[in-house]
Known about the structure:
Largest sheet: 7 strands, antiparallel
CATH superfamily of the largest domain: Hypothetical protein af1432
Shape: elongated
Strand content: 5-15%
Number of helices: 13
CATH class of the largest domain: Mainly Alpha
Number of domains: 3
Distance between the termini: 40 Å
Helix content: 40-55%
CATH topology of the largest domain: Hypothetical protein af1432
Amino acid sequence: MYKPISVKRLTVGMYVSLKEIPWYKHPFLVSSFEITKPSEIKDILALGRETVLYSPQKSKSDPLEKDLDIKITKSQKDFTQKTSLKTEKASELRKRRKKFQAMEQEFSKALEYSKSIVEGIKTGQIAFYEEAKTMATSIAETFLEEVELSVNHINVTASDEGQHFHSLNVMVLALMLGKELNLNRDKMEKLSFGALMHDVGMLNLPKKLALTPKLSKAEMEELRKHPKLGVSILSQLPDIDREVMKIVYQHHEECNGKGYPRGLKCDDISKLSRIVALANLYDRMINTRDPSLALSPHKALAVLFGKYERSVDPDYLATFIKLLGVYPPGTVCRFSSGDVGIVMSVDPKMPLNPEVIIYDPAIPKHDAIIYKLGVDLDMEIETTLNYRDVDAAALNYLDSRANIMYFPKPK
């Protein structure tokens, strides 16, 4: 809860908010922050305001007992210089946003393309099969480049019921894991194509099965036919790789023998199938048929580790968790400052320093800045939040949608 306080009573350790002031009219990168040095008080005084808002709950120190005997004078020269420096820094940080927007455009194109070629494969047309292989190989190449890859959350509006969105997401997640497991080029290309095709059998089932949140026993039995149907579709194509067929057939098998269609144990499930099975399970948790049942990425990893540890390959799971980090991209969280934001990107080598967007109404949504915690801002993630516990305006600002998409970004 914020309340007004005289600027003459400010001291180091107080948590203040300048959200009543347009962002471009003050020299600070964020509009709410803890005062950490006397020079910041001087900068606030230079704004020429009698009062600012402060939070007693977030503050580490109390206000001065009485006003200091100082004259409040707006320093235009000092203000202009520091605001200019802030603008330069903000411009540099916004370049990150442009990279994300470029990724969103690339993914949107890939989504539409995958939709057309996968549906073409259903008809048995060889041309579509070749296009699908070319697309899968091309995306695999991204991961085979000698560059580090960070994991990124991007926002894309799904063009249909989400089946193609899901297939593409699983492919990207599987390739990220495959790269961490040091798969060679041949394996990565097969993994990419198999992951893209893993649910191709769903095309021969009623669409409602992919849309209905809760299925009856009979509907579930029907749904469980899709691995066999997928193999049937792909078997019509020439020179289909056996490893790819195994991925399509085995991606619902579980290491504890409770999966389908055959109830295989871990050693009998191919390595590539185990990778896709894990990526598939994770994506189904965060992008559910019923958005209200979707888990946050952070919660999904916790559930995978606690509930499905014996269902998936334990070594692959450990690598997957390390890859996505403590706070996976797409996680909505509260920072030590009390602000709410969303994790946009994680570097596996710096899991506690993700790139984030902070909800700040003082900055227009389209101008929202992507900060790197611990580098651009001296704050940390305090806790993760469920979507239902976050204000609707904040969720809209952060573009926290039902669908969470991951995509590679070369550094």
